[in-house]
Specification:
single chain; about 110 residues; mainly alpha; 5 helices; about 65% helix; about 0% strand; flat
Length: about 110
């Protein structure tokens, strides 16, 4: 649900994507951003473990990478913004699909 709630043109979203790109060219920024990403991955892995997900650390890395990709796709492709992504992300995490209209649309 939250994956589709951000606005692609939002300043924070654009700044973060630009920061990721800039980190490929600036070692200090890359090192500092890596710390932030590790903390995010650690928190998500902890939550996934609490949900009973196997391989929580790897699952967190895959989910975060998928989410980053979705952000980029949705910035570029207006049609991608309408795709219901909640249940596919839940499946990637090893979680059951949510009940409701999105479940029918994401199969």
């Amino acid at each position: 649900e939250a994956a589709g709630s951000y606005v692609p043109g939002d300043t924070a979203t654009l700044v973060f994507t630009e920061t990721m790109l800039a980190a490929t060219r600036h070692e200090r920024l890359r090192d500092e951003l890596a710390v932030v990403l590790r903390e995010c991955r650690k928190a998500l892995a902890r939550w996934l473990r609490e949900q009973g997900t196997d391989d929580a650390e790897a699952g967190a890395a895959v989910l975060l990478a998928a989410f980053d990709g979705l952000v980029l796709y949705r910035i570029i492709d207006e049609r991608a913004r309408a795709l219901p992504v909640g249940n596919p992300l839940r499946r990637l995490a090893g979680l059951p699909a949510a009940a409701g209209p999105e479940e029918r649309n994401s199969r």
